[in-house]
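Notes from the 1:1 (GR / supervisor)

We went over the backlog. Supervisor wanted to see one worked example end to end before approving the batch request, so GR pasted a single chain during the call. The sequence is below; no edits were made to it. Supervisor asked that the structure be written out right there so they could see what the output format looks like.
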Amino acid sequence: MLSGFQKFLLRGNLIDLAVGVIIGAAFGGVVTAFTQGVIMPIIGIFGGVPNFDALTFSINGSIFKYGTFLTALINFVITAAVVYFFVITPFTRLMERFKREEKPAVAEPTNEEKLLAEIRDAIKIRPL
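Structure output shown during the call:
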């Protein structure tokens, strides 16, 4: 039972997944810092930083904070745009630039072509 658990833990894809999650979390921090530190101030220049947290309405004493949702939605859209335009698009262009041109495989000559080549070679060797 323990050996199966050990095999599970040491399987390659589990380690790859763990590394991916850790790198993803660190990358998320970078994207958040870039969005909050660079993009949001640029947006703030033109119309103020979008923060709708104070927007609420109430029904029978229940307070609905829809502004928090709007702020989170706007932050999500901005973060998605940053990832797309500053990570995905440049990475795709870079990969296309360095992508090797795959040459078509040279086809194996057919038996007929081999036979014709032998006949040609035999004719070249034969004296006139």
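Supervisor's comment: The first strand starts at residue 57 and ends at 59.
Batch request approved.
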